[in-house]
């Protein structure tokens, strides 16, 4: 979240290389929460019931247009200890896509799920929660975010990471609103 990318960096961290893409943003689907539930059950089956997993991203916000990709947050003790989670998730049908400092991302072969893995205490965990919770609460920011995503979906991208990076400005603004809300400075 909020990381500056260029082709050289992406070539180092993306398993399988950059993938030119066209982003599709669709109207909200009330079944996204159910889909997350089924996916979370797969992750728990692979890693055990004590696993901490949350629905994040736009599909976790009722009423928000989104890419039809379920984003999930998995919190592990040590993200660098891939042996503790990657083989079990691969056996459950996930594919390791991103290996970067402090972050791993696995996805389904259909590319309709992104499982973001962070170690305990990573600041990105609270960023994802703040963004999700504020967008669930604030209609104006939800609409602003949807409009930005639809605008950016009109372009072709050298990789989905560039689309995500293009949203950084609006995400930073929304996170500022979310943090003010969390501290009681904003209703």
Automatic annotation (TrEMBL):
Domain of life: Bacteria
Any Pfam family: GrpB
Entries under PANTHER family matching the protein: GRPB DOMAIN PROTEIN (AFU_ORTHOLOGUE AFUA_1G01530), GRPB FAMILY PROTEIN
Name of this chain's protein: GrpB family protein
Lineage of the species this protein comes from: Bacteria, Bacillati, Actinomycetota, Actinomycetes, Kitasatosporales
């Amino acid at each position: 979240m909020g990381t500056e990318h260029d082709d050289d960096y992406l070539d180092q961290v993306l398993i399988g290389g950059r993938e030119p893409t066209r982003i599709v943003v669709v109207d909200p689907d009330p079944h996204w929460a159910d889909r997350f539930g089924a996916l979370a059950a797969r992750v728990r089956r692979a890693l055990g019931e004590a696993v901490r997993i949350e629905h994040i991203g736009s599909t976790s916000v009722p009423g928000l247009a989104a890419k039809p990709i379920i984003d999930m947050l998995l919190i592990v003790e040590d993200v660098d200890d891939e042996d503790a989670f990657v083989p079990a998730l691969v056996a459950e049908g996930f594919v390791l896509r991103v290996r970067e400092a402090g972050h791993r991302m696995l996805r389904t072969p259909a590319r309709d799920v992104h499982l973001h893995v962070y170690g305990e205490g990573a600041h990105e965990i609270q960023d994802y929660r703040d963004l999700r919770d504020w967008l669930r609460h604030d209609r104006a920011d939800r609409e602003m975010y949807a409009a930005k995503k639809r605008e950016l979906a009109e372009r072709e991208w050298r990789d989905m990471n560039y689309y995500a990076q293009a949203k950084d400005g609006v995400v930073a603004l929304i996170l500022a609103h979310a943090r003010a809300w969390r501290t009681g400075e904003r209703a």
